[in-house]
Amino acid sequence: MLLLGLTTTHPVLTLICFALAMGALGMCEGPSWTTAVELGGRRGGTAAAVMNTGGNAGGLLAPVVTPQLSLYFGWQAGMGLAGLVALLGAVLWLGIARARPDGKSAIEE
To answer: Averaged over 34-51, what is the pLDDT?
Structure first.
């Protein structure tokens, strides 16, 4: 939806696409927190804290990097970078393996 919003020239369609993209991203937040706590086991709170720190680091950089990138390359580049970061997160998610009942990870097979 973000890509469609970046390529359309109709302002209302752009807004709708961006809103749907943010909604889809927001739906991933709950499972992300649950996964961090679950994978952390006894140190689930620490795992969630590390994830929270990473999110805050991105939140700190975004308002600085996005306008600078947009100034030189256009607003689509700034928003496109945000989309690439989200896509990278989705790709990294594929490396997460659930533990089997015998305690071994699916990766250990």
So the answer is: 88
